[in-house]
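Sample A.
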Amino acid sequence: MLRHETNKDMSQIVVGGCTAVQKPMIVEVVGYQEGACPFRYLGVPITSNTLNKLECRQLLEKMTKKVKVWATKQHHTQVE
């Protein structure tokens, strides 16, 4: 089984839908710095608004590339 650990120095948490009292408690328990929208994921801006066609296309292309790399690695691992 593969185990993935996040880099807390490069990660943030965006918290919404909770009270002002709950928010700092969540941030403290999780251990990440608090972030805010908009932010970028795989080079694509992530906002609370709907992504436009270009942003969706960019995100899909980057995700497809990642999946192909993972699938290739899995295939090579299983063959060896």
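Sample B.
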Amino acid sequence: MRTKSLTPEQMEARVARFNKLQTYQRQNFETHNIPPGAVEKVAARRVYPVMAPADYQGRSAGAPVKGPLGDRVQYCLPRCVRTRLVPIGP
């Protein structure tokens, strides 16, 4: 197997910094004016797209790390809230 050397710029293009990630909620609001609360009703409280193919047009299109064209691998980081269980019954 051959080793490939990367420049700092090439390596940075493959790094996603958590403090710079945008949630689906924010992306949907900025792109389609869908209120964040509406998205939270049908998805995890926060979902951070991290990696998607460079030509991807779906909801992970805003991911900062772009994979090879035509690739179908996506990586998202969900963050759910802890809920308190409420007993049902007598």
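B remarks: The mean pLDDT is 76. Strands lie at 46-53, 65-67, 75-79.
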